[in-house]
Amino acid sequence: MTDLEQALEVLARARAAAEEIGVPMCIAVVDDGGHLVAFARMDGAKFLTVDMAIGKAWTAASAGVPGSVLGALVEQNPRAAAVFSTATDGRFLAGEGGLPLPGGGAIGVSGGTGDQDEIVAKAGLG
Amino acid sequence: MTDLEQALEVLARARAAAEEIGVPMCIAVVDDGGHLVAFARMDGAKFLTVDMAIGKAWTAASAGVPGSVLGALVEQNPRAAAVFSTATDGRFLAGEGGLPLPGGGAIGVSGGTGDQDEIVAKAGLG
Amino acid sequence: MTDLEQALEVLARARAAAEEIGVPMCIAVVDDGGHLVAFARMDGAKFLTVDMAIGKAWTAASAGVPGSVLGALVEQNPRAAAVFSTATDGRFLAGEGGLPLPGGGAIGVSGGTGDQDEIVAKAGLG
Amino acid sequence: MTDLEQALEVLARARAAAEEIGVPMCIAVVDDGGHLVAFARMDGAKFLTVDMAIGKAWTAASAGVPGSVLGALVEQNPRAAAVFSTATDGRFLAGEGGLPLPGGGAIGVSGGTGDQDEIVAKAGLG
């Protein structure tokens, strides 16, 4: 279970990292069930990335592994990503920026390049 | 435009009010376009209420009036609520707990009774 | 078939009527197939009403009768509205403000009361 | 905020350009939140392209960059387009013909080749 105080600390660390690299981002924290606990869209982050951040967090929580690991698997089987996406009503989103949290739940970050999203997600883990 | 700092202040005020009445809630803040800016689910708030809070905020932003006003209109026309819900892909959610913010955007609160949700949403306005 | 020039004339007449009564509205014109030909959202019209106007036009075109006639039928059978709405992916929207056009297609208007929407839709017919 | 008069001027310029190259098109203008402000389908434009034009405008508004830029990114990552499409309920549509407007919001054009759509969208910008 991810409590709100922990989630807000994850958000704050990730946000500080995004500010340090100067890229406005959307940051989502979900619980073990993939349900939203806390979310922040930084000023200038595009609204396209709202669903992307939430999707990355949901996907990392649902699989229990980093989105980048899933992304690499999916690249070997290009049809899989589209199928998983449709099967999950669009929630499945593999790739950099989604990471399980040590205490349960996951963080999802979107708004930069894959590398930038991953740096910010890692910063969220503390 | 609703910036993140303003949205977090709205969240903090609403959360303090929910703690005062002892009811865990989901609180969402969206911008003028109905897109999520900040969100918090308090410990003990059910995940059913995540989408309810976001829907109430979206609806108040989309209509520019409190959800309770829309709710009263819909009560006079029972078929409207179901139809509007489907027409908007489930985003439409009228009722207490959704309020436009003075500077633009809206707050949506879910987790208590209608009266409790409304008290907490009003507290968010400051 | 509804051509664009005719549709723009319908829009202009409806818009003038909405300005005369001082209510900002969304106005949609669709062809015989219910597909959008022309659309205008007046300044101050809420974005909730975008899908409502398009839905009313689609519904009037699909049934070939005014939305108010369908609305009266549906009131006698409250479950029908929700079922029709879901069955049509949210496009079904009966009520005042949707009217078939004499030359084919339909107009849909949303943003005011039912009576206001109907006045503006009728003005569109010329 | 994109007002209706500005949106209609964008539409008129784009339509004139489409007439000049002799290709009937759908042209959509949305506001900062991706919500429709004005739309026109030229005589002969297929109804398949209605949602394409609206999707391109939504995508350009949501990301704040031309659809062609997003399209190039997506080409490097073929699974992304399908996943983003599902994640956004089919609204995401990258490629030529979607451009942010200088004053806010975006234009989306569909009906020709990618190059033709882009020429017409650029003409809309004035």
Plain-language structure description:
The structure is a homotetramer of 126-residue chains. Chain A has five helices and four strands; from the N terminus they run αββαααββα. The first copy, chain A, is α+β, with helices and mostly antiparallel strands and 126 residues long. The first copy, chain A, has a four-stranded antiparallel beta sheet with strand order 2-1-4-3. The first copy, chain A, starts with a helix and ends with a helix. Chains in contact: A-B, A-D, B-C, B-D, C-D. The A-D interface holds A 46-48, 51-52, 55, 74-75, 78, 81-82, 85-86, 89-94 and D 33-34, 59, 62-64, 78-79, 82-84, 86-89, 92. Strand 2 of chain C pairs antiparallel with strand 2 of chain D.
User: What is the chain-wise order of helices and strands of chain A?
Assistant: HEEHHHEEH
Q: Kindly name the structural category of chain A.
A: alpha+beta
- Total helix count of chain A? 5
Low-confidence stretches of chain A: none
Give the overall pLDDT of chain A as a whole number: 94
Number of beta-strand segments of chain A: 4
> Which two chains have the most extensive interface, and how many residues on each?
A-D, 19 and 16 residues
Helix content of chain A: 40-55%
Strand fraction of chain A? 15-25%
Radius of gyration of chain A using CA atoms only: 13 Å
